[in-house]
Write a structure and sequence with these properties.
The protein has about 150 residues and is α+β, with helices and mostly antiparallel strands. It has two domains: about 45 residues; about 100 residues, 2-Layer Sandwich (Tetrahydropterin Synthase, Chain A). It has a three-stranded antiparallel β-sheet with strand order 1-2-3. β1 and β2 form a beta hairpin. The N and C termini lie far apart (about 105 Å).
Length: about 150
């Protein structure tokens, strides 16, 4: 039979109590760190950056030989990361070129006058900009293209 010193027997519950209190007191600090990390991630995801492409695009559209029809489009790029702006600005001449070519390819002014036609053009513009950013190995992409001005003049 083992005899435990009465002084040690009283220290064991005291040591367990101190351990428990320390763990309980540090819990809010750990939970706060996790919440801070989650809040930082949520803030990063909520970033929306609008990048204007100036000046507006003006080009003629339509089939060759027909009456000249003009298209004027003001474009703003929507990005969801702060790191996208420098990549877009670095490649702005190439991005503008792609959009000039896209707008110049349009032959159906009636289609462009419809919501469906404008939406299809907007989606194609987004696709082409993302292709350029991928080709240039920027590691960035845009979330969309907005037409802040869209005029078809016949």
């Amino acid at each position: 039979m083992t005899i435990i010193n009465p002084m040690i027997r009283h220290r064991l519950p005291l040591a367990a109590l101190i351990f428990l209190l320390t763990a309980l007191l540090s819990w809010p600090a750990l939970a706060q760190d996790e919440e801070s990390d989650e809040e930082a991630e949520a803030e990063t995801e909520k970033v929306t950056d609008y990048i204007e492409m100036e000046p507006s695009f003006v080009t003629h559209i339509g089939a060759p030989g027909n009456k000249v029809t003009y298209l004027k489009v003001a474009v703003t790029i929507r990005a969801s990361a702060e790191s996208t702006r420098p990549a877009v600005e670095a490649h702005m001449p190439r991005l503008r070129h792609e959009l000039v070519m896209l707008f110049g390819e349009q032959t159906d002014a009636d289609k462009l006058s419809s919501n469906e036609g404008r939406e299809a053009l907007r989606e194609e513009a987004t696709k082409r900009i993302n292709q350029v950013l991928e080709e240039q190995r920027t590691g960035e992409s845009i979330t969309g293209v907005l037409f802040t001005e869209f005029v078809v003049q016949r």
